[in-house]
Design brief:
The chain has helices at about 15, 25-35, 45-60, 65-75, 80-95, 110-115. Residues about 1-10 and about 130-138 have low confidence and may be disordered. It has 6 helices and no strands. Helix 3 (about 45-60) crosses helix 5. It has a domain at about 45-95 and about 105-130. By secondary structure, the chain is mainly α. Helices cover about 45% and strands about 0% of the residues. The N and C termini lie far apart (about 65 Å). It is globular.
Length: about 140
């Protein structure tokens, strides 16, 4: 049994396959979230791919574009950044969609973080977003 670094490491060359870069996440943010040492670079391409996929997943889930978020909020809200990093961490820790010992979904916290920014079908043409948990008569 081989323990330690593999002799021929598998490298997934994300940048060669898809030139789309992350919009609001950085590799440094992802490594900090996943508790990966900054000098460990073997999986940087994989992490970049996860970061881009997390951003795209959230934008699709919100039914928005990156520029839509910038236009409405001036920057990507911190809740969305946190949800993106959570997704990357879950995908990094659980590389298969199903594990033998535990079946689980992305934590409920993810939904709570991004739900206020969802654009509903009824919002098109009105430029409104869904407002969850915000009391207007306090």
């Amino acid at each position: 049994m081989h323990i330690g670094k593999p002799t021929t490491p598998f490298r997934w060359h994300y940048k060669e396959q898809n030139k789309i870069d992350m919009k609001w996440l950085t590799l440094q943010m992802i490594k900090q979230q996943c508790r990966i040492e900054p000098d460990f670079t073997l999986e940087d391409d994989l992490l970049t791919g996860y970061g881009t996929s997390a951003e795209n997943t959230i934008l699709n889930h919100l039914n928005r574009t990156y520029y839509d978020l910038l236009e409405q909020y001036g920057a990507v809200p911190q809740d969305i950044i946190n949800a993106s990093m959570m997704l990357v961490d879950v995908w990094y820790q659980h590389r298969s969609p199903v594990e033998a010992l535990s079946l689980s979904i992305v934590p409920y916290t993810f939904d709570i973080l991004i739900k206020p920014y969802m654009k509903l079908a009824s919002d098109y043409g009105q430029n409104k977003t869904q407002e969850y948990g915000k009391c207007k008569n306090l």
